[in-house]
Amino acid sequence: MNLAWYDVVGLLGTLLILIAYFLLQARRLSGNGVAYPVLNLFGAAGVLVSLLGTFNLSVFLLETAWILVSAYGIWTSMRQRRIDGESHQSGGGK
C-alpha cells in the first residue's frame, strides 16, 4: 500500500481526534480545558488535508464544522481562564 503525504497527515489527524476522545472518556483530559479542542482542531485539519487526494463534500463539511467548534472551545476556555485570573487577582469578589 502506497500512501501519499496527505494520506499520512489525514491518518495522524484521525489519530489525534481518537486520542483526544479516548483521553476525555478516560477522564485524563477535561472537555472544558484547552487541550481537548486543540487536539480536535489539529486532528480535523489533518483530515481536511487528506481531502487533497480525493475530495469528499460530506467529510469537508464535517471537518470544517469540527474546526469551527474546536476554535470556539479554545476561545471560550481561554476567555474563562482570563476571567478566572482577573477575579483571582482582585480577591475573588467574595
TrEMBL record:
Keywords of the record: Membrane, Transmembrane, Transmembrane helix
Membrane-traversing stretches: 6-24, 33-51, 57-75
Domain of life of the source: Bacteria
Keyword Cell membrane: no
Domain CBU-0592-like residue range list: 6-81
UniProt cross-references to NCBIfam families, sorted A to Z: CBU_0592_membra (NF047864)
Protein name: CBU-0592-like domain-containing protein
